[in-house]
Predict the 3D structure of the following.
Amino acid sequence: MSTPPVDWAALGRGGSRAIATPTLLIVAGSGAMIVLLVLATIGMGGAGAWVLRTVGALLAIPVIMLTIRRAQVLRRFAEMERTGEHPDNVIHATAPDGQEIEVIVPGAERTVLPRLGLGGLTGYSIGALASGGLAFGLFLIVGIARLVSSGG
């Protein structure tokens, strides 16, 4: 009894649908919280404001890394959907005249499941969510502090 062949095109299509919207929402939401934090410090002066701006820049790192990894994973899924092959079976080359060449070599896969970068995507998603949450908390603290200091 043999196992049916894997439909790599369907796997690529389903995988890209599964991660595209949630990761985009994480990037947009976390990025918005970080921008809010930095914007809240514009009217402030002194070392505290610069510390908060620096923290905002540091909190942006996981969001930027998630954006990069998201693009890599979606590109890999799109290639699987387009070729219908295991990613290890597709060899890319450039001819001397600059033309891109793709050669499909059946059976060249090194692993049963392709390495797509989903572990890194998950880690960066968690980091981006944490960064967005921290930025939102700091934004609230800055807002409350400004209200209290203005006699509000």
In short: The helical segments are 8-40, 47-83, 118-149. The beta strands are 90-94, 100-104. DSSP finds three helices and two strands in the chain. The mean pLDDT is 88.
